[in-house]
Design a protein that fits this description.
Blueprint (H helix, E strand, L loop, with lengths): L1 H6 L3 H8 L14 H11 L14 H8 L6 H17 L6 H9 L4 H7 L14 H25 L2 H4 L8 E3 L2 E6 L9 E6 L5 E5 H34 L1 H25 L15 E5 L10 E4 L4 E6 L5 H16 L17 E5 L12 H12 L5 E5 L8 H17 L2 E6 L3 H7 L5 E9 L4 E8 L7 H7 L4 H11 L1 H75 L3 H17 L16 E4 L2 E9 L2 E6 L4 E5 L4 E2 L26 E3 L5 H18 L3 E5 L6 H12 L5 E4 L9 E5 L1
Parallel strand pairs: 7-10, 7-11, 8-9, 9-10, 18-19
Antiparallel strand pairs: 1-2, 2-4, 3-4, 5-6, 11-12, 13-14, 13-17, 14-15, 15-16, 19-21, 20-21
Helix pairs in contact: 3-11, 5-7, 5-11, 8-10, 14-15, 16-17, 18-19, 20-21
Length: 734
Amino acid sequence: MQEILKKLDLHDYIESFSKYLARQKSIILEGDINLHHKLIKELEKFDVKAPNDVANLDTALMHIQKQGVLKIDDIIEFTKIIKYFTYLKRFNFDGKLQEWIDKIIIPDEIMAICDYFDDRSKLKNGINEEFDSIKASITANKEQIKQSLYKIINNQKVRSYLVDSQVHYINGEESLLVRGGFNHILKASVIDRSNSGFFYVLPHSVSALKQKQNDLLNKQEEILLKICKQISSLFEKNLMFLKFINKEFDRFDHYQARLFFAKVSDKNFIIPSKKNVNKLVDFCHPALHDPKPISVNFTKSVVMITGVNAGGKTMMLKSILSAVFLSKYLIPYKAHHDTTIGNFKSINAVLDDPQSVKNDISTFAGRMQEFSKLFTSKNAIVGVDEIELGTDSDEAASLFKVIIEELIKKDIKIIITTHHKRLAALMASNDEVELIAALYDEANRKPTYEFLQGTIGRSYAFETASRYGIPNNVVKKAKEVYGDDKDKLNELIERSSELEKEYKLKIEKLNGEISKMEKLSKNLEEQKETLDEHIYSEKSKLHKEYKDARDEAKKAIKAKLVGESHQHLNIAHKKASEIKTTKVQDPVELKIGDRVKYRSTKGTLVSIKGTKAFIENDMGMKVQVKLNDLHKSGNPPKLKKKPIKATVTIQKPSSGHVKLDLHGQRSDEAIGNLDKFLSDALIAGFDEVLVYHGIGTGKLSYAVKQFLDTHPRVVGYTDAHPSQGGFGAKVIKL
């Protein structure tokens, strides 16, 4: 516990919380954290005073269990607990809190013991007559000692030898400070000597009284021992109750301490949640003075923090782990109540360099040892500062990529800080990785201590070196050694990461559309099956009814009597007229503004009220009809429109030039500018232009040639005359 507190800079914060406890103990509150929080919230409604300091009674309970005799001080500590719960029972608490207090039933014989002592934890008069008598004798003897000393001080013969007229307590004894030669007029024993050469003496008359005092005190101790034996015997009979109430006192002490601590500086209780959501909102790390609140979503399995040196990456890591730790142990802290923290079984912090003379291990080997332990963990959160510390960054990037992916499978959440973009780039494509960049204020050349999610940040090592006093000429040389190519490579890594995220978003959107279309297709198939079943049913019904009508017609034909034949024909006609089918119509959702058709009338749907609708026909009349009688009409009303004359004008641009300089531009930027330049030149009527692209690495020259080769309006191009740029420029014919 102390190690993780030290790593997360929480030691002082927990120490300040512990001061609110009535007795020192572990901050761990065993049991259901949600029930504890509910009881704390119920307790918050009442003005309950905090318990007085109480000593740890674990040893005393073991002493009782072994039939030992308690000291009076231990007995008094037990009575403090009993009296406090008696005080709590006066309140009319609510809900679970009242149920809990009601379960604590104090035996009458234990309550009687509490009445032995007054508010100053002294044995009351009337409890034991012999003890009261001895106590009175001790008081009287003290008064005699006092009077004897004052009598000696006021003696005229002794006064000439007294250095002062005070009673001095030396080695627990009342004494007088006298000069040498005192033995001629005062019988006393020397008990000490002052720095000035005087003597502290105890008069013999007082010595006799002191001896009597000691005898009385010894007698008092004997009587007190008898009382302690009686109480210890009673406590032994109620040992289970004493263990129970001692434990319950610690529980209530935890509640009260957390409640009082939360009221200081307006802290909040953030209860661990089973939801797969983890986010900090306006969290302030308690180790920082006047901190800038941070907000971060760390719901994904891996959070990778990159960016500027000394920009707060490590403190961001510690903040996430600290919030998880404090929530786990129900310690209130400064954060918005919208903060959500998951429930983790263990919290690990890999922050320090393990290399030292004592452990005889390298930095990287130590890191590997710490990571190997994680493979046996589940539902844990771990923070790793400078993950690639101690070895080659390229090798480490490949190794840690695989390690992290395997740990994700074990339900382990990892918070990482790193300056090496290779690992960040390798992990960026993983859906379970959240990238966070510490931001840098380039205008003021300093970190902002703010963070941006979804991107890889630059380290700004050169700028940080300058800010902390490294000479500018040294930084300049370092930049030259570093080279532009690596800087461009870093930019490319950052850009590729952004593009990859954009593509992932597009793919997700397309997958969503595909899923939507598949769902729609499935619905249509289901509707088709329903319609097929309906059609088959209607068809069977028609076949049967048609057969019945036909049979009646045959009977009419076969009948010899005209009347009988007419009778059968009438029955057949009746059966035919009774044949009806259910009209099949696809359900259509209509909304206000749709073009609709009602019988032969077409119009626009203007309102819907229950099963009725109002339409406005093309003549401008409003008609109320049944909503079920409406059909969609895709034919809008024919309106006569006046023909619009279209005119096209092409204006010669005012910015047309015959020269374009592409020096210092990136390829994609340069090609865009070249395309616009050629378009303007064509509109302006130029048939020949000059473009400067420089020589450099040849990348820009190659890109310009490729573009010109494919441009439909470029007739041809050649290298410019040496006076106009030579190989670093092109003359383009349009």
